[in-house]
Amino acid sequence: MCGITGYVGKRNATPILIESLTKLEYRGYDSAGLALLKSGNFNVIKKTGRVASLANEVAKKQIDANIGISHTRWATHGGVNDANAHPHISSDGKFTLVHNGIIENYENIKNFLVNQGYTFASQTDSEVLVNLIAYHYEHRTSPDTKNRFTESVRKALIHIEGTYGIAVLGKDFPEEIVVARKGSPLLIGVGKNEYLVSSDVLGFAGRATNVIYLEDGQIASITCDNCDVITMTNSPVGIDIKEIDWELENADLGTSKTYMQKEIFEQPKALENAIRGRISDDLSTSVLNGLNITPTELRQFDRILFCACGTAWHACLVAEYLIEKYARIPVEVEYASEFRYRNAPLDKSTLVFVVSQSGETIDTLQALRESKRKGFKTLAITNSVGSTISRESDGGLYQYAGKEVGVASTKAFTSQIMICLLIALYIGRMRDLSFSEGREIVKAITSLPNAIRDILKLAPQIEKIAKKYSHYNDFLFLGRLSEFPIALEGALKLKEISYIHAEGYPSAEMKHGPIALVSPECPSVILANDAEITPKVVSNAQEIKARSGKIIAITNTPELFANIADDIIAMPNLHDSVRVIATTIPLQILAYYIALERGCDVDKPRNLAKAVTVE
Length: 615
Fold this sequence. Notes:
By secondary structure, the chain is of the alpha/beta class. It is 37% helix and 22% strand. It has an eight-stranded antiparallel sheet with strand order 3-2-4-1-10-9-11-15, with helices on one face. It contains 19 helices and 25 strands.
């Protein structure tokens, strides 16, 4: 979940590394550091806290060099302090390294290295790896071995169990960076007489137009004018250079105060991007060529399994309702982190979807690999072109939502639901969904972005409500049927960015336990936009009111809650297929303004990082 950057070229590496780290800070902000190599010496500076603290420290030193590596940390092994910050230097002083991932067998390796005389200055697993590289360099079979820097890294990695994305400098190699990856993203930006290294293409913004996506089990040796890639078995690999589509990767803050605010208000455009080119000419179905599967093949599947984590898992729960309703196919939703360990029996006619905004979520990636290992057709829904999941899946659909920087997902979530609705429509029209029903859904889909633009105009009203409730420390979120996953997502958003304890439940389940939490100090957010079951939800609200619980109702029938709810956010009447997407918007805005009122950093909430690349 950390961010890695590197530079080798003709320019001063220092400002380039700091700029890249700032762009990657959403990946971790416990500490940051950089290492520069000049005149045979390492200059290492690291600091707990945000990248800005590191930048201030670096500015005092006024160090310049043409090669360097840097890192912004989300702590796994070892506490948050300067000693555990990256980069780490081998105890013999010959190598320095930055690492993203987890080394599972680090204790055994550390014990071996201690017996060999190596010492350790931190509690991290990463320091074990840099000392292991030093060990293999010291014990190489021949001092004349070609590419002995790369070879020392390769031999060290053979012994590593776990995941890694690394960048390494060696004192004896003043013009070379060695990088490698397994289970953690690492990209190489190609410039003119320079190369850049990053965990995310965003780290190259404004500095490279082309990129090399390093694959798992690959090691690259980079100088200012050359890049060689080999496998773990020391076989050379041909380099595939791809052009970066910066229109998709744009992540400027613009006039917004925060990325979360910007991304909440970008949702109409994000949804338009998800829809664009995916509606049939007769406006009765969707066109999903990216699935790489023919209609005949698709009709052979009679069960769908979704795997995802966090917010994406909530999107999959919504997909279950949509696909079962409109396509009439049974759907199951699994936590990706549980899937490969559960050994759940899967019928041969099961189609698997994995969903990940970043396309790098390690649990979801491992679920994809487990599904493919067992011979199942596995498709992906992701927002990141060229990501590992997008490259390893059998097919899939890009969200085209644009770069999402805020840790708490907003536009990616609603975009994921839209993609799932397009899938439900596509399969439904193949089966028993009529032409006229298809056209009704398409009409709802294409009109949704403008409906959400109108809902976003409620932000000032919701801000006032947020200020009223910002001092409470417990919330309940309640919804029925497809609004239950939205209640879960609303509770998650509030937890993530305001640190308020919040729980989501089906409305009718409240009386089976959660009603014990109801009190004047625990407000309830009630979702009631489904005409068929709204009377039932009103009854649930009455039960809360009878116990002096405060109620915020988000409903398209505000008159039914006029004498029950303390506050009402009135929603438009929308088609059943898109209603849940619209219902999400007020919950995002509510969480956002509550967090701001409590003085929280909404873009960088504590203990969280955007891309979860460790198990």
